[in-house]
Specification:
The protein is of the alpha+beta class and 80 residues long. Helices cover 51% and strands 15% of the residues.
């Protein structure tokens, strides 16, 4: 039972890593990808403060990958 859960968990992690590699940007959770917020009556709109009006955000997995790649790049540059 535990082995099956571990295999399923690793499979899901691998799928998420592939998704982050193919599509590094996801839809903004705050504005639902529209890039703007508005009042309920729809008369006043402003840019989303989370995504700065772009409608997209960097996925968590891609942030981790970028952090790791930066650390690796710095270590390799220091070794030269």
């Amino acid at each position: 039972m535990i082995v099956k859960l571990v295999i399923v968990g690793l499979g899901l992690a691998l799928l998420y890593a592939a998704e982050c590699a193919i599509w590094p940007l996801g839809k903004c959770w705050c504005c639902s990808g529209t890039g703007k917020h508005g009042r309920d009556d729809g008369k006043v709109w402003r840019p989303c403060r989370i995504c700065a009006g772009k409608g997209s955000r960097i996925r968590v997995g891609r942030r981790v990958w970028n952090w790791y790649a930066g650390k690796r790049r710095a270590a390799r540059a220091a070794a030269k």
